[in-house]
Amino acid sequence: MTKYILFDTETTGNDTEDRIIQLGGMIVSGKNDIECYDELCSSDVEIKLEAMEVHNITPDMLIGKPECTQTTFYNKILEHNDPNNYLIAHNINFDLDMLKKEGFENQYTLIDTLRAARHLLEDMPYHRLQYLRYALDLYMVEEEEANNLGITIKAHDAIGDVLVMKLLLSELVKLAKAKFPEEKNPMKTLAKLTTTPVMVKKFRFGKYKGRFVNEVASEDPGYLNWMRSSMENLDEDLKHTIDTLLGDSQV
Q: Which one-letter DSSP state was computed for residue 205?
């Protein structure tokens, strides 16, 4: 039976040296067959204050906790690591890169709910998980879902975010069915969308915030060249958009 594994990580920070300190996950085998995991784990890397500000995990909370590779959920991920199963996360590349630091080598079919949302909810100004939580009224049904699964809801908490992601995934499945009625399996559709880059329409930050990217590419290509060469953590879809618009004019 196909396994659908939704997960989220909380980490010591967002830099190369940073590591996982919390894993939240669900393993869905059927409508009423769901395993939930919420595990803190220790790390030799100090938690950055900026990270604590977001997830509220402090060093004292990790005393006596197992290393990431010794957690139950990490070993469940290893156990089900097969192309017939799905690994699902919001902005999955970040969480997958964190797992790779623990020695994980992916064999799953991947679904990124962030990129899928960008494809299927293209008129939404933002696609952050917490933004979609409110924009799609997911918060109105999450308490009942949480009670059914025995989950405590907290924003920017691994298992809390997984719960929201589960609700978002259900909405994305409906949208995929409606937009691609010829496709028999909406999960395969979401997997295809995950590997298909999105052309970003407008800037969401910077001096051209709110402007169409294609207009800026014509008026100020130097700015896009600067973004592409200087911003290390530039979003993958924005990279694709810049590369497509600038083409051979990149420096």
A: S
Nearest-angstrom CA–CA distance, 218 and 141: 45
* Cβ contacts of 99 within 8 Å, gap of 6 or more: 9, 20, 74, 77, 106
Distances (CA, A) of 38 to 1, 20, 66, 250: 24, 13, 13, 45
Whether the model clears a pTM of 0.85, i.e. scores above it, the answer is: yes
HSE (side-chain half, CA atoms, 13 Å) at 103 = 7
Q: With 80 as the cut, is the pLDDT of residue 15 above it? A: yes
- DSSP-assigned letters across all residues of 85-136: SEEEETTHHHHHHHHHTTT----SEEEEHHHHHHHHTTT-S---HHHHHHHT
Best CA proximity match to 251, nearest among 231, 224, 213, 214: 224
Q: What is the pLDDT of residue 18?
A: 95
Cα separation, 120 vs 201, whole angstroms: 14
* Cα distance between residue 95 and residue 89, in whole Å: 7
pLDDT beyond 80 at 156? no
